Amino acid sequence: MSTASRTSASGQAGPVVAVLGTGTMGDAMARNIAAAGLGLRAWNRARDAAEPLADVGAAVCDTPAEACRGADVVLTALANETVVADVMDRARDGLDGHPVWVQTCTVSPDGGRRLAEQADRLDVDYVEAPLLGTKEPAVAGTLTVLAASPRKEARDEVRPVLDAVGSRTVWLDEVGQPSSLKLAYNAWVLTTVEGIAESLTLADTLGVDPHLVIDVIEGSGLNSTYVQSKGPKMLDDDLDTPSFPLEAAAKDAGLITDTARAAGLRLGIAEVVRERLDLAADDGLGRADVAATYRTSRRATS
C-alpha cells in the first residue's frame, strides 16, 4: 500500500521518515521533513549531532535499526557508498516494515546499482536520489532531486518526502542514471570553481585587481550566481564555513574521473581539477569550503 495514501505507524497522515546521517545536508532535510508535518526519526554516528532535531519533534535514536523501526521511508544522507552500505546493514533488524529506502549520497553509477542490489537483499524498495545543491538550498528546501527506482509505484510513496526537501524532482528511467547525471553536473560545478580560482590568481599575478574579474564577468553572458558567490568569498578569504566541503568535492572529483575512465573516456579538465582538490585536501583544507582550492599555490615549480 502506498505510504502517500495510508496513515503512518504513528497514527498521522503521511509517511514516517527515518533520516540516517544528520550532517549538514541530513540535518537540513530532516528539519524540512518535520516542517512538512511528517513523522521524523533520526540517527547519526555521533549522537550529539542529531540531538538538536529533538527540538523539532524527532525521535533521536541510538542505532540505525532503532531509527528505522516503524518508519515508512528511510533516507540516507551519509558520506560515501561504503558508509551507506554499512549503515543499512546495521539497520537490517529495523526494516521489518519494508520501508522505501531513499539514498541521497553521491556515488558512482555502479555504486548506485550495488546499493539497489543491497536493497533487494534487505527486502526494501530502493530510490536512488542524489541531490543538486549545497547547504543553502538544503536549508531552504529548494534542492533538485535526481531520482529513479526499480518500482514505479515508489514515486508516489516518497513524493511527500522529496517535496519536503526539494523544489524539483527529476525522474529518470533506471537506477544508475541519476548518479550519472549528478557526476556530469558536478563536473561542471568543480570546473567552475577551479576556473574562478585560476582567473583570480592570474589577474593578481599579472598586476590587475582580481575584483575586476568578478566585475567584468557580472556584465557578461557568462555570469552566474555561483561565480558571484564563490569569487568574492575567495578574495575575502571567507572559506572556512563550508556550504560544500572540499573533502566531499575531492571525493566527487575522484568518482567523476574514475567513472569516465571506466567508460573509456579521458576528461582533461576534470583530471586537473581532481589533482587540485587532492592537493588542497593534502594541505589540510578538506573541511573548508570547496572554494578553498583558491588557497593552494599555483606557482610554477620548474
Features:
disordered N terminus, 302 residues, 9 strands, Rossmann fold, alpha/beta, N-(1-d-carboxylethyl)-l-norvaline Dehydrogenase, domain 2, 6-stranded parallel sheet, 12 helices, 3-stranded mixed sheet, 2 domains, 49% helix, single chain
Structure summary:
The chain is an alpha/beta fold and 302 residues long. 49% of the residues lie in helices and 12% in strands. The chain folds into 2 domains: 16-173, Rossmann fold; 179-295, N-(1-d-carboxylethyl)-l-norvaline Dehydrogenase, domain 2, CATH 1.10.1040.10.
Describe the structure.
The protein has two domains: 16-173, NAD(P)-binding Rossmann-like Domain (Rossmann fold), CATH 3.40.50; 179-295, N-(1-d-carboxylethyl)-l-norvaline Dehydrogenase, domain 2 (Orthogonal Bundle). 49% of the residues lie in helices and 12% in strands. The chain contains twelve helices and nine strands. α8 crosses α12 (268-285) and α9 (211-218) runs antiparallel to α10 (225-236). The N and C termini lie far apart (66 Å).
Task: Summarize the topology.
Elements: E1 16-20, H1 24-35, E2 39-43, H2 47-50, E3 59-60, H3 64-68, E4 73-76, H4 81-90, E5 100-103, H5 109-122, E6 125-128, E7 131-132, H6 135-140, E8 143-147, H7 154-165, E9 166-171, H8 177-205, H9 211-218, H10 225-236, H11 246-262, H12 268-285
Parallel strand pairs: 1-2, 1-4, 2-3, 4-5, 5-6, 8-9
Antiparallel strand pairs: 7-8
